[in-house]
Design a protein that fits this description.
four-stranded antiparallel beta sheet, 0% helix
Length: 76
């Protein structure tokens, strides 16, 4: 896991300052906001590309996304 991954031709990263997910389609030259974590999710820690879904490790659990990180669901 890491704080930046390549998924479906996009760079996707955790912005630790804003506790958010950002993406780039310009190889990191510019970044765009995709998602801001809620307090219920805690601090965003790590990302992983698992093919059809992304995994996000947070201080309050594990989440998955099938929308390139636009929405997240808690994995139980």
């Amino acid at each position: 896991m890491g704080q930046m991954i390549i998924h479906q031709k996009e760079l996707i990263r955790i912005n630790t300052t804003k506790n958010s997910i950002e993406y780039s389609i310009t190889d990191g030259r510019s970044w765009h906001h995709r998602f801001t974590a809620t307090t219920m999710m805690g601090t965003l820690l790590d990302l992983a590309d698992c093919g059809k879904e992304l995994l996000l490790s947070t201080s309050k659990g594990l989440y998955y996304s099938t929308t390139k990180g636009a929405s997240w669901h808690k994995r139980s």
